[in-house]
Amino acid sequence: MGRFIIKLSGEGRDFYLEWSTVVDVPITSGMSLKEFKKYYRKEYGSEGMRELPERLRRVESTGCSAPHTTLDNFLSCNRAGDNEEEISKEEIFKKYCLERQAK
Questions:
Q1: Which residues pair with 13 in a beta bridge?
Q2: One-character DSSP codes across 50-62
Q3: What is the number of other CB atoms lying within 10 angstroms of the CB of residue 84?
Q4: How many structural domains are present in the chain?
Q5: pTM (2 decimals)?
Q6: Which of 8, 39, 41, 68 has the fewest C-beta atoms under 10 angstroms from its C-beta?
């Protein structure tokens, strides 16, 4: 299963999410970097934490941890909308970051 980290920014905040390429949607809600690191440690343990700095360097550079692509390319053909419809980066931000933060 392909899991990658993406970073979405808006309203003066950055949110980090884990994304599955199997289902082409985020599998977490948007989190602050501190929250994301805590989640990542719990999910992947100390072994996963060793690879996290390199993954985050790619995220900060291109918006996603997937090598050799950009966030916009990575999000194309997503199924993050209702009924697995493709939605824009802005709609993903609203649905998976802002709306879930409000709950």
A1: 10
A2: HHHHHHHHHHHHH
A3: 11
A4: 1
A5: 0.93
A6: 68
